[in-house]
């Protein structure tokens, strides 16, 4: 029997497919997993033109078309979760279900990151003076709990090395930020009709947990799962628990 299809939407803002090195293997045991780099990140092209949410969404839909995939389950993390919301609205016929992790509806109803992260994200002068490794190390506490960083040096080094290997140039990093800043879908969330699982880290300050509560309250029949004490990168810190939640969800709705 052919495996079901799960499309993993990659987190934005400098993230590549390699960030899923702990999540994908478990999912791939049960499902076909299609994973790709968004425009401006990883090994995809990085044109220095304005990026929009529609453009990033059309890129994802175009990939499905190119692969001959008519309909798929969509996982979206962070910026990928924003793209997944747009995909469900712009291409409902292609969207079988959604898993929205550590993401937001955007706009004035979205709860922004704390000011420390905003400064980290937007201080281009400091970033230009640092090595890529210095930049990612400075941000580790946004992504992982302190105990995880302390107890898993090999995993953290793999994460750092993945970032250094595929860190995008400043222009495409900024273009992705510009696209995310236009994401505002609160009023349209009730139009999403597919089964949806919303996942949050209970200690996420990059995308505060309240964003997931908003999504779950606005999307009809959405389920909410909060992973206590987790920060933004659940895909690295808690892959077994996250995989179990995704698989349980897909078995019920697939």
Kindly describe this structure:
The protein is an alpha/beta fold and 254 residues long. The protein has one domain (4-253): 3-Layer(aba) Sandwich (Rossmann fold), CATH 3.40.50. The protein contains 13 helices and six strands. Strand 3 (72-77), helix 3 (79-90) and strand 4 form a beta-alpha-beta unit. It is globular, with a radius of gyration of 17 Å. The mean pLDDT is 93.
Structural class per helix/strand content?
alpha/beta
CATH class: Alpha Beta
Share of residues in strands: 5-15%
Number of helices: 13
Stretches where pLDDT falls below 50 for ≥5 residues?
A: none
CATH superfamily: Alpha/Beta hydrolase fold, catalytic domain
Give me the CATH fold name.
Answer: Rossmann fold
Distance between the termini: 15 Å
The coarse overall form would be: globular
Please state the CA-atom Rg, rounded to the nearest Å. 17 Å
Short description:
This protein has 254 residues and is of the alpha/beta class. It contains 13 helices and 6 strands.
What features would you highlight for this structure?
Rossmann fold, 6-stranded parallel β-sheet, 13 helices, 6 strands, alpha/beta, 254 residues
List the helices and strands and how they pair.
Blueprint: E1 4-9, H1 24-28, E2 31-35, H2 53-66, E3 72-77, H3 79-90, E4 95-101, H4 115-122, H5 124-129, H6 132-138, H7 140-143, H8 146-151, H9 153-166, H10 170-181, E5 196-201, H11 210-218, E6 223-227, H12 234-237, H13 239-253
Parallel strand pairs: 1-2, 1-3, 3-4, 4-5, 5-6
């Amino acid at each position: 029997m052919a495996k079901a299809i799960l499309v993993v939407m990659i987190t934005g803002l400098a993230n590549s497919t390699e960030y899923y090195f702990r999540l994908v293997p478990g999912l791939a045991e049960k499902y076909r997993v299609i994973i790709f780099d968004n425009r401006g990140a990883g090994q995809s092209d990085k044109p220095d033109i304005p990026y929009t949410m529609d453009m990033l969404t059309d890129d994802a839909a175009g990939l499905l078309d190119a692969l001959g995939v008519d309909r798929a389950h969509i996982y979206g993390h962070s910026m990928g979760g924003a793209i997944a919301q747009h995909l469900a609205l712009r291409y409902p016929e292609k969207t079988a279900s959604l898993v929205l992790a550590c993401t937001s509806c955007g706009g004035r109803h979205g709860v922004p990151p704390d000011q420390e992260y905003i400064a980290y994200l937007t201080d281009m002068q400091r970033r230009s003076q640092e090595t890529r490794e210095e930049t990612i190390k400075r941000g580790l506490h946004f992504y992982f709990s302190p105990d995880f960083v302390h107890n898993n040096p090999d995993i953290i080094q793999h994460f750092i090395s993945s970032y250094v290997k595929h860190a995008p140039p400043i222009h495409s990093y900024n273009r992705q930020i510009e696209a995310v800043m236009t994401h505002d879908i609160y009023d349209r969330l009730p139009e999403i009709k597919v089964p949806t699982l919303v996942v949050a880290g209970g200690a996420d300050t990059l995308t505060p947990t309240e964003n997931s509560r908003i999504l779950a309250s606005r999307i009809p029949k959405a389920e909410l799962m909060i992973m206590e004490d987790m920060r933004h990168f659940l895909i690295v810190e808690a892959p077994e628990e996250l995989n179990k939640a995704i698989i349980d969800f897909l078995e019920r709705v697939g």
